[in-house]
Write a structure and sequence with these properties.
Number of helices: 24
Shape: elongated
Radius of gyration: 29 Å
Strand content: 5-15%
Largest sheet: 4 strands, parallel
Number of strands: 9
């Protein structure tokens, strides 16, 4: 794992052909703890950065999270026509300094991982020189880089003396380009009317826009955030890191950097609004309740002796129903023990035996929980996420891969079912379809459809992705197993 992946400082990428911000000396001390910087100083470097990032992105995007430099703040000098020096030249061809200041060496490692040659990173300048008065090459290449990372929270800060009105009168091509790129750049590629911004201005504007971009992408499910971390921020308690999962892997950033100019109330307000967007107004506590019930159901599911005894009780009643029960031998003795243990009651109606268990301390059954419909639904989804996580971790550690069956899911939802007295998965019971439908009706969705990536609306699907992240089902694990990916991401 590279140093850049473990570093939790917010990444700033500077596109600027001058060293007026003195990037060679690093960031000012008051920002160095929470922010880190890389520099592109020429159109040729910017093109190489974009091309290499795109090539990795199209083959194995998580490599960009390990070796590359996917920024959270992108400061764009709109001109990019004053100097032709590369960062390599600025650091006097010092390879160690170049590694610390340029994003290109890391991309070199990423390209080698996917078998792509280094010719992509050979710097080749544009075939023309900028015409007199041209001050917008940085806008064009900056916009394309932003579009390359449109699925990641990147905040754009433009550095140009021109404002929006100026473009409409003096540079209509730039106004057209900004309009063309609005959706992919979240309308952040806009002339600021400010030339020569300070680091204070760049970081202040950048962190505000980064908060907006995090909200935007999380709300539509393009990235996922840890709901527990958001809840801690919303509560006003100390939270050092915010975890982001994207197709580039798992990234953690410093919360103090994200809110460097904001007081505790503004942090809480941002997290509160985002939680409401994801979970729904007033439902955060219900989701916590659902997760707690899911943990209890799985605790019962893990009690193998208890679960097997409940299945044994079912099998004995099935033998009674089929007329193969040994009423004078071991069957009768064992049934008596289990009936007493589970407080089982039953009645025979024709050839069928019906009934339930009534020992409330032993019951583990989602249908029997006293919950509103929304909470019961998310209890069931939490159980499925946690069970799939277990299987994914086991498979990744060498456990033999096998598809997770529907009966296994139903067992995790009702590990010690209150009823029917004869369980649906008891061989020859003939009750599987009816009992499964009963569980589906109670939890509010078809388990089989949801496992196949169907049966949830858009907002529910987004929340499921964030829940999976929060419960430890990482994006890397999800992507390795198609059945799990269908469940989490949908068809």
């Amino acid at each position: 794992m590279s140093t850049t992946q473990r570093d939790t400082r917010i990444r700033i990428l500077l596109l600027d052909d001058r060293d007026s911000l003195e990037p060679q000396g690093g960031l000012p001390p008051q920002y160095a703890k929470c922010f880190d910087i890389r520099w592109l100083s020429s159109p040729a470097e910017a093109r190489a950065y974009r091309d290499a990032s795109w090539l990795c992105q199209s083959r194995k995007p998580e490599l960009l999270g390990i070796f590359g430099w996917v920024p959270e703040i992108f400061a764009i000098d709109y001109a990019l026509t004053q100097e032709k020096k590369s960062v390599w030249d600025w650091v006097n061809q010092d390879s160690e300094k170049h590694k610390m200041l340029s994003p290109l060496p890391g991309l070199q490692d990423a390209l080698s991982q996917v078998g792509i040659g280094q010719e992509t990173l050979v710097l080749k300048g544009p075939p023309v020189t900028p015409p007199a008065g041209s001050e917008f090459w940085g806008c064009y290449i900056g916009g394309l880089i932003l579009a390359t990372f449109a699925d990641y929270p990147v905040a754009a800060v433009s550095i140009t003396r021109y404002g929006q009105d100026d473009f409409f009168h003096k540079a209509k091509d730039v106004a057209f380009f900004e309009w063309l790129m609005e959706r992919q750049t979240s309308e952040q590629l806009k002339g600021s009317g400010k030339e020569g911004l300070t680091w204070s201005e760049i970081i202040s504007d950048g962190t505000r826009k980064l908060q907006e971009k995090l909200t935007q992408l999380a709300t539509v499910g393009m990235i996922t955030l840890n709901l527990d971390e958001l809840s801690t921020i919303a509560s006003g308690k100390s939270q050092n890191l915010l975890t982001i999962q994207s197709r580039y892997g798992t990234r953690q950033i410093k919360v103090d950097g994200l809110f460097i100019n904001d007081d505790i109330n503004m942090r809480q307000s941002w997290a509160d609004r985002l939680i409401s967007n994801l979970v729904g107004d007033g439902k955060s506590s219900l989701l916590m309740q659902a997760r707690s019930h899911a943990e209890e159901l799985l605790k019962t599911y893990d009690n193998e002796i208890l679960v097997q005894e409940r299945i044994e009780l079912s099998d004995l009643f099935l033998k009674m129903e089929k007329g193969t029960f040994d009423a004078a031998g071991a069957d009768a003795s064992r049934l008596g023990e289990l009936k007493s243990q589970f407080a089982a009651v039953y009645q025979q109606e024709g050839s069928r035996i019906n009934g339930e268990i009534q020992n409330m301390e032993l019951i583990g059954d989602i249908r029997d929980l006293k919950l509103d419909n929304w909470t019961r639904k998310w209890t069931a989804l939490s159980v499925i996420v946690l069970l799939l996580k277990r299987f994914c971790v086991g498979w990744s550690r060498g456990m033999r891969y096998e598809e997770i069956s529907g009966p296994e899911i139903y067992l995790s939802l009702c590990p010690v079912a209150r009823n029917p007295i004869i369980l649906p998965f008891s061989e020859g019971s003939g009750r599987d379809v009816a009992a499964d439908m009963q569980v589906d009706r109670k939890v509010g969705f078809s388990v089989q459809k949801v496992l196949a990536g169907d049966g949830l609306d858009g907002a529910e699907r987004v929340l499921l992705r964030h829940l999976a992240h929060t419960l430890g089902l990482s994006s890397q694990l999800i992507s390795e197993y198609p059945r799990v990916e269908r469940f989490v991401k949908g068809q």
